[in-house]
Amino acid sequence: MPDPPPAGGRPGRSYRVEALAKGLRLLSYFSAERPALSVKELVDLSGIPMPTVFRLTATLEGEGYLERTLDGKVRPGTGVLALGFSALQGLDVVQTSAAIIRELAAATGETVNLGVLYHDQVLFVARIARNNSILAADIRVGSTVPAVFSSIGKVILAHMSEADLAGRISDTSFDGTWGPRAVRTFDALRTQLSAARRDGYLVQRDEAIPGLSSIAAPIRQAGGTVAAAVNVAVPSAEYGNRQLVDRLLPPLLAASSEISRRMGGPPC
């Protein structure tokens, strides 16, 4: 909250550091689709002048938050990785759910993921992979997937207000090459969100990754707000929709309800 105006009606003092804000903005442009960027690409994405971007990237590189690739581009360095993993491990939902998602993975024998929203993406904050998975899904803690293609993302989006949803999801949220059943329009997404609100869980098949199906349930915190979601992900060839619900929904709901209870929220 900004400082109140001092006596005399003059505006409060701002403590915003523009150079820091610009440096953080540059770091936000890296993603799974853009793992490395040139200075020119950062200029185009940010609108920040070339000399400023050059100085900022040099500073971030010197501090270990960026590193130079062989072709002269920059990518996130070990400083970002260390900071990111420390922050993820410190999240209340990660600490609270750790033992519960291990039990869920053991009970189902399948991959379990825990995720939160980051802009219009799902950020995976915990993951226990099935040992003998035949899928080469390149997802790990710290990975992101567009929320509109993720069962975790859609379960969280389903409990947002219309205003928050419109502010979070745009036409560009549907971009990219994903699974053959990936939702492609706001209308189709709204149908899925409505079903997730009604049922208390969501099943999806071959949307984020071809050959991968999942079933997800919300995690609520104090006040009933959906703070995160947990899913069980399986090879589509091994599970039909009925099997997903019959075999995986009971332990999934038990896990999400227990995590919610420990977060101070109502059961799911």
What would you say this structure looks like, in words?
By secondary structure, the chain is of the alpha+beta class. Helices cover 42% and strands 18% of the residues. The protein has 9 helices and 8 strands. The strands form 2 sheets. Strands 5-4-3-8-7-6 form a 6-stranded antiparallel beta sheet, sandwiched between helices. Strand 7 and strand 8 (226-235) form a beta hairpin. Helix 1 packs across helix 3 (50-62), helix 2 (39-46) crosses helix 3 (50-62) and helix 5 runs antiparallel to helix 9 (241-262). It is globular and about 60 Å long. It starts with 17 loop residues before the first helix and ends in a 6-residue tail after the last helix.
Count every helix, treating DSSP H or I runs of 4 or more residues as helices: 9
Biggest sheet: strands, sense, closure? Answer: 6 strands, antiparallel
> Using DSSP, what is the number of strands?
8
Helix coverage percent of residues?
Answer: 40-55%
- Helix/strand order, N-terminal first: HHHEEHHEEEHHHEEEH
| Molecular shape | globular
What's the Cα radius of gyration?
21 Å
Derived structural class: alpha+beta
**In whole angstroms, how far apart are the ends?**
33 Å
The fraction of residues assigned to DSSP E strands is 15-25%
The main sheet orders its strands as: 5-4-3-8-7-6
Average pLDDT, all residues:
87
**Uncertain runs:** none
Task: Write a compact overview of the structure shown.
The chain has 268 residues and is α+β, with helices and mostly antiparallel strands. It contains nine helices and eight strands. Strand 3 and strand 4 (121-128) form a beta hairpin.
